[in-house]
Write a structure and sequence with these properties.
Shape: globular
Number of helices: 18
CATH class of the largest domain: Alpha Beta
Structural class: alpha/beta
Oligomer: single chain
Radius of gyration: 21 Å
Number of strands: 10
Helix content: 40-55%
Largest sheet: 5 strands, parallel
CATH topology of the largest domain: 7-stranded beta/alpha barrel
Number of domains: 2
Order of helices and strands: EHHEHHEHEHEHEEHHEHHEHEHHHHHH
Length: 376
């Protein structure tokens, strides 16, 4: 193995409320449909861990570490509650950290038949990243690592140099995703097992691989064939590790030198895309995938119906561009597109997933009512 790309997803979803409009039907508002106070509390609890992790990465970068951040627009909006968090990410970028682009609202819009909404959200995210960090992203990542070939073509037209997606078994046909793959934008695929060794198992004392120290992890990578390993790790999962012990901090600090001792470079995704020969993988052009499979996003009737209703609301909203509340309504509509809402409707508990779906459709119904009244 020659190189590793380490990417972190920084995202805190804005969850839907349990919605029973006993107070009557009024105008749509974020606080009417979404758990604003709960999200604020989650953000405040997360912030101390984020500072600790960011400080660990600063030390890691001083030792040669190179990291890419996929920071959702939803999280960027939440940083207004505590600007010091955004400043800590700005410091990382000033030190040389990389950022990737994505649809602003961590949205399922890459699956919409009309990609106009997708293009708008990508442009919105890029503009925000440019304004906040002074960078123009070269790598692109869809929410839930979604692979949808139409969006790859849009990314090509927008000038992205690398596309990152899930290394699902139906895509890699049982092989490890260890190359840059030929596509309309050179594509890297997440190595699921190694990513989850860090994301899920690092602090699990019952795991046979425990303790996972950087030297051990680097030795595993060094023993693999291929060009590049792509790790894509949720930042909030590292925060969970941090609540159990400080092992994750030491792991991050030690990782660059542990890899370097074995001749393994840490690269940004776009650097890897330009360095290695692209391998052919026909399934990239013929199949869709997402983190843990498309069935997690669109695996049941409720999810498909929610997607249909979203598109119907988008059509109605498009007729109201001259309305005085259009911007507010559009923001609510885009938060209703969060991929996390779809994942909740595919809960392991079928009853919970059903109850979530019923609640979500109550909110969509109220939103459609309000749009109908606004159009009169």
């Amino acid at each position: 193995m020659k190189a590793v790309c380490v990417c972190f997803e920084v995202h805190l979803p804005l969850p839907l409320r349990w919605y029973w409009p006993r107070e009557g039907y009024g105008a749509p508002a974020l606080e009417k449909y979404f758990e604003m106070e709960k999200t604020y509390g989650s953000f405040i609890r997360l912030q101390e861990g984020v500072r600790t992790l960011n400080n660990a990465l600063m030390s890691s970068m001083e030792a040669g570490g190179r990291y890419t951040f996929d920071i959702s627009g939803v999280f960027l909006d939440q940083c207004k509650w505590e600007p010091a968090i955004l400043e800590s990410f700005r410091q990382l970028v000033d030190m040389g950290a990389n950022v990737a682009a994505s649809p602003y609202y961590h949205s399922v819009c890459p699956l919409f038949p009309d990609l106009a909404e997708f293009k708008e959200q990508v442009s919105m995210h890029m503009e925000s990243l440019g304004g906040l960090f002074g960078v123009k992203p070269a790598a692109f990542i869809n929410p839930e690592l979604l692979l949808e070939q139409r969006t790859v073509r849009v990314c090509r037209d927008l000038g992205f140099r690398c596309f990152i997606s899930e290394g699902s078994h139906n895509i890699v046909n049982g092989c490890d995703p260890v190359h840059v793959y030929e596509n309309e934008v050179p594509t890297l695929l997440r190595h699921i097992d190694l990513s989850e060794d860090v994301e899920k198992r690092l602090s699990d004392r019952k795991w046979p691989g425990y303790p996972l120290i950087a030297e051990k992890f680097a030795s595993w990578i060094a023993g693999m064939e291929g060009d590049v390993i792509t790790l894509y790790i949720r930042y909030d999962s590292l925060h969970i590790h941090l609540q159990k012990s400080a092992e994750i901090v030491q792991f991050l600090k030690d990782l660059p030198q542990s890899l370097s001792r074995r001749g393994i470079e840490m690269l940004f995704p776009e650097e890897a895309a330009g360095m290695f020969r692209q391998e052919e993988l026909p399934s990239l052009h013929s199949k869709k995938t997402a983190r843990y499979g498309m069935h997690n996003l669109l695996g049941n009737h409720a999810q498909h119906l929610y997607m249909h209703e979203l598109q119907s609301i988008g059509d109605e909203l498009g007729k109201l561009k001259a309305h005085e509340d259009y911007d507010k309504l559009q923001t609510i509509y885009r938060y209703l597109q969060q991929s996390d809402i779809f994942l909740e409707m595919n809960a392991e508990s079928q009853r919970l997933g059903y109850e979530k779906a019923v609640n979500n459709f109550s909110i969509l119904s109220d939103m459609k009512r309000a749009l109908t009244e606004a159009g009169k």
